[in-house]
Amino acid sequence: MKLRTPKTLRSLVVAGCVSLMSITGAAKAADSTAPIVIPIHNWSSQIVMAYVIGGMFEKMGSNVEYVPADAQAVYESIRNGDVTISHEVWQSTFGKSFYNAMAKGGVIDAGTHSATTLEEMGVPTWVIEKNLCPGLPNWEALKDCHENFTTADSGGKGRWLEGPQSWHGDLMPERLEALGLADKWTVKFAGGADALWTELASAKKEGRGTIVFNWTPNFTDADGFTFIEFPEYTEGCRIADGGDGKCGSPKGWLKKAANYKFPKTHPAAYTAFTKLDFSTTQIGQMAALVDTDKMDHKDAAAKWLADNEDVWMPWIK
Amino acid sequence: MIEALQNRKYLQFFLLVAVFLLLCLLVPQSEGNWLWRLPPLLSQLPIIINNSVDYMMFEWWPIEVYDPDIEEYEQKPLLREITRGISGVVLFLIELVREILLGGVKTIVTFSGWDWATENQWARWPALPWTVVAGGAAILGYALSGIGLAVFVGAACVYIAIFGQWEPSMQTLSFVLIAAPVAILLGLALGVWGYKSKRVEAVLNPLLNVAQIVPHFSYLIPVMVFFGIGDHAGAIATIIFATPPMVRLTILGLKKVPPEVAEAGLMSGCSDWQLLRQVLIPTARRDILIGVNQVIMQCLAMVVIASLIGAKGLGNDLLIALNRLRIGLALEIGICIVLIAIVLDRLSLAWANKQTDYFADQSFRERHKYSLWFLIVFVAGVVLAWLGSFIFREGFNYLYLIPHNKGITTAAFWQAGVDWIWDTFFYSLKGFNEWLIVEVLIPVKNAYLAMPVVATFTLAMGAGFIVGGIRSALIVGFFLLFIALTEWWDRALITSYLVTMAVLISGFIGIVVGTLCAQHAASSRFILTVCDTFQTFPSFIYLIPVMMLFGVTDTSVLIAIVVYSTIPATRYTVEGLRSVPEALHDAASMSGVNRLQRWLSVELPLSFPHMALGINQTVVFALSMVIIGAMIGTDDLGQLILKSLSDKAGVGNGLVLGFCVAFIGLAIDQILRTWANQRKQALGME
């Protein structure tokens, strides 16, 4: 097949654009009516928040579209403009994907929620109540209780069940090494969040000790979950950043991301999106509507919007 | 001595294993030693691939495009505009089908633009009431096959509706209704082309193998970059995955057409097209229909994966349900997926088997009776939905669309079932699990990792040489060399260890179960339906109970792989044994053999080539599951493929890792296939 020369193509495109302009008419100051694309991931608070934000945009007269997407891969789509925003960028889990996409260009940082997050290794609270590791949540307790946390494939060491490697690379093995725990503990990477929750459920049934990676706010908060207190995080303390690695996780941020065209195409919606700011409690409320009250995600969002008009109305003005 | 060796293959194998073990003992383990591990000369390859994809997508051949939204001209690369154009067409088709079923505004927007549609809120396409869709599907079933199919199809629709899964099911259906026909037509076209030209077939064969074995995850990111995110991207990934079996079975079927038949067609004066359309394809129908069945099964097997790149519907709901460990709900969704698969499969089968009706002089009513019935159902359904709006004043109109998750649910029952299994079996299984890990899995894994690279090459290439001569040896060598030169040889060894274990177990179960079921026609049909069910039932669902019982360990990974890869082992065993001619059974029985002897010395050897292909497919299935294993937690190639979703060089890493997995499969395929073909020739089957 012979390709058209770029010249004819260009003139074709220009011709098309001219005709398009004549149809759509004069320049618009208001938001475009093209839909704002909001991604849906697979955890409750994110989905409810997607419908809440979508509801706000609709109230402003914008069209909204929801698209299921993988939480790691979505940043590439935002960069390409296939998805417009992402409203839950967790620092330690998605920070890497987010900054990689930003470095390539096309993604902008649309501000930070006031909710802080903590993503850290921890134990279900009943592990402490059963005294399987006396001294927790202080990390020094880990020095002599690993026997209660062994599994068949851990080679006699206690096991840390960390999230998938895509979340923070080799951070946890490095931390074990740095804290001098490596001869008593080993890290197993789970394949996904499902694996973490399954481990929590099965350890509880069996009453055995388990240390898993988890975060808050999360639905596991309701069942009681205690994070281990490692030496405090300081800037650059991690081995990847050139430090000695003897530190825990920072209080993390929860950011918002958007495609670079969003401010130009939907100036009003973008302004609202930057003003938008959820606290830990509010995110917890949204998740609880689904997880505790067993509501449908869309119904939960509608209820939250109805109950909290005083919270979100100022943002869209 | 040499002569004895030349004639006895088992002696050759014996010698090969001896050399292999010697090499394992003698080669020292040190990083600098090339006999132990090759240097990673290809470690830049992912970055090169990544950069060239970036260049093609974002820089190559830029054209100026005016973006009316930001009122600026933008430089846009040509390739990207082309792929996005394709995306647009696919998406339009999917939305069209979806809006016929569920209603919406997208199709109208395509012609009018968002501005107009926003101003005119009345311009919305209404949904078909579910009663009309269910009735229409039942009429279709009746028209194609009869009352049995009509009842089955209707019941499936009612099940989906009353369990509150109507909306996501129709979303999934609309996406499959586009992806499956495209895959079928594409497969048919490529198959015919491959049949006509030897050269095309030679090119197609390895490509098909790669497309089938490369884990879907490794092309999710490339598809997303090229085609964007959404239902169209899901459909395109599904088409890549579902087309290969169709191509393969089309070629197989056409090759089996006796030359007499084709010549009879030519003598009656068929043109090329007529010959193909009216002689060859109808004659090869049996195999082509198996291809259609496989396409539909593969499409629905992809539903969950496709939802990761934007396909709406059941897959996405399933992932959400599983993330909260709601196994009962997930199970109901899984059943809907299987039901859609079986309904589509049976309908397409009935359509293909339907004979054309040549009755003339029918009255208007007779010719259009099905359309008239549908019209009646349509009017009745609409009236019911209208009446429903008076009955269900408060909540939802159950006679129009049953809203998502507002139907009845048996989730609590299934949840209790899972709990029961846990309480009953956990402690007895725990001992077994520990024994398996400590005594079997860990030693085998360590043994694999302790193989020097030179020993692995000797074993694989030697096996290739013994079976297929120097050509096979070189092909196998090339595949291994590629993997050995990447940084991921050790990971590939772990993948091989998992696959080897899984294939051993699956092969054993498959051959035993297949043999037992092949003894009767009824049990054969039953087991083939079970195979269909397990092939489409999303593996994610049984991952959770398996993980609860066996923990985040290699045992769970192994079980997940075995459940899936036993399907082809069983299927091919049944089909192989059933294809042994009755006359041979009788001849053997007359010579006075008992049942077991007959199986051992007549049926088994005769169906051996078939079974070897079954084992070949078992390897393919096992390899394609490594990624699911990674979702439990492994440290093999799959884990890195999963990780590539967030990598900077994600496209390159994903593809190269995918090729590593595919090349393991292709190396095994080369040896098994050559061997099976030789056996076929020796048995006079070809």
Chain-wise SSE layout:
The complex is a heterodimer of chains A (317) and B (686).
Chain A: H1 6-24, E1 36-40, H2 44-59, E2 64-68, H3 74-80, E3 85-90, H4 91-104, E4 107-112, E5 117-124, H5 125-129, E6 158-162, H6 165-168, H7 171-178, E7 185-189, H8 193-206, E8 211-216, E9 225-227, E10 251-252, E11 254-259, H9 262-265, H10 267-275, H11 280-291, H12 297-307, H13 309-316
Parallel strand pairs in A: 1-2, 6-7, 6-8
Antiparallel strand pairs in A: 3-11, 4-11, 5-8, 5-9, 5-10
Helix pairs in contact in A: 2-11, 2-12, 3-4, 11-12
Chain B: H1 2-7, H2 9-26, H3 45-58, E1 62-67, E2 72-77, H4 78-102, H5 106-112, H6 114-119, H7 130-144, H8 147-162, H9 166-196, H10 198-213, H11 216-227, H12 231-256, H13 259-267, H14 272-283, H15 285-301, H16 303-307, H17 314-323, H18 327-353, H19 364-367, H20 369-391, H21 411-449, H22 453-485, H23 489-517, H24 521-536, H25 539-550, H26 554-578, H27 582-590, H28 595-624, H29 626-632, H30 637-643, H31 650-682
Antiparallel strand pairs in B: 1-2
Helix pairs in contact in B: 2-22, 3-31, 4-9, 4-12, 7-8, 7-20, 8-18, 9-10, 9-12, 9-15, 10-12, 10-31, 11-12, 11-31, 12-15, 13-14, 15-18, 17-18, 18-21, 21-23, 21-25, 22-31, 23-26, 23-28, 24-26, 25-26, 26-28, 26-29, 27-28, 28-31, 29-30, 30-31
Which characteristics define this entry?
heterodimer, A: 317 residues, alpha/beta, D-Maltodextrin-Binding Protein, domain 2, 2 domains, three-stranded antiparallel sheet, 18% strand, B: 686 residues, mainly alpha, MetI-like fold, 79% helix
